[in-house]
Amino acid sequence: MIKNKRLLTIICLALVVAIASLFFPKGQEAKKDEPAKVGVLQFVTHEALDEIYRGIQAGLAESGYDDKKLTIDFLNAEGDQSKVQTMSQTLVNNGNQVLVGIATPAAQGLANASKDIPVIMGAVTDPVGANLVKDLKKPGGNVTGVSDRTPIGAQIELMKTLTPDVKTVGVLYTSSEDNSKSQVEEFTKLAEEKGYKVEAYSVPSTNEITTTMNVMLSKVDAVWLPLDNTIASAFATVVSAAKEAKKPIFPSVDTMVKEGGLASVVINQYELGVATGKMVAKVLDGQKVGDLPVEIFAEGQPVVNQKVAKELGIAIPEDVLKTAVEVIK
Fold first, then answer.
1. Do 168 and 194 meet the contact criterion of CB atoms below 8 Å apart?
2. What is the annotated signal peptide range for this record (predicted)?
């Protein structure tokens, strides 16, 4: 009787193993052959962030993740903080293996939505100040990425070279963006050390930009803009007001120089995106996100808008034109 029970148990176990061998390997193979899935959240539409997204796709492709091996789940919050929260949760629920946040609010939204899925930052100037990582070299947790450290010192030197008569500089930024606050603090400190008077104005949203610009332009000789997603999305308004007042703008993004700024020393946004894409690929390949140091882009190159300079009656020195990575005519 005991032997029969043992025999029956063995037969049952054999059947379970046989059934498992029929179904589970096939399921595993299907998953292995399926393309990787990456969720990307962009905070707002403007050319600089669009360039970063384009770079991310190129960086992934260069790392072996082309359209056949990768599916990108892309969402854009269009500057709406409530959408950042809901879209972050959507990307988590969609089963993405890695999440990418383009700009600080997007990265923060994704980091708050999940503590398990790897989050890669793209274009976050102050990851520590934004409470995304505790240590740039050893992030730990589930967040790392690429930081665009604005070359503020070099921007101030360029401002001094091109507009030596400027005494007071106006700064416009968004009060809700942690990324912007840290840049404004650094700019104020460095500019005051160089003898400038700094007048900083914050806005809660794009609705207040026109009024704030009109007030600020009556008190300053030039305008400096940090890497600020809200201001960038309404940059045409800033340009219009400054043009009427005949005051130069020194932005922190190359695309904004093209759109009406005078000049800047900038980080290449596309290359920053490529680096972000390659970091995503490393995580997809199995590296632990917490072990990957934050990559910092800090070396900038001059970009000047000769057309705007002529409109303002500013002569750009020949040595600046020679060193500029791009001259807009």
1. no
2. none
Q: Are 310 and 327 in contact (CB under 8 A)?
A: no
Domains in the chain, CATH or no CATH each: 35-149+269-297 (3.40.50.2300), 152-266+301-328 (3.40.50.2300)
Between CA 312 and CA 329 the distance in angstroms is 14
Give CA–CA dist 121/287, Å, rounded: 16
Q: What's the CA gap between 74 and 96, in Å, rounded?
A: 11
Instruction: Single out the residue of 277, 291, 283, 290 nearest to residue 97, CA to CA.
Output: 283
Parallel, antiparallel, or unpaired: how do β-strands 222-224 and 70-76 relate? unpaired
User: Residue type for 178, please?
Assistant: D
Please report, in tens digits, the pLDDT of each residue of the chain (329 residues total). 444 555 555 555 445 444 444 443 332 222 456 899 999 999 999 888 999 999 999 999 999 999 999 999 999 999 999 999 999 999 999 999 999 999 999 999 999 999 999 999 998 988 998 999 999 999 999 999 999 888 999 999 999 999 999 999 999 999 888 889 989 999 999 999 999 999 999 999 999 999 999 999 999 999 999 999 899 999 999 999 999 999 999 999 999 999 999 999 999 999 999 999 999 999 999 999 999 999 999 889 999 999 999 999 999 999 999 999 999 99
Token pair listed for 87: 């879209």
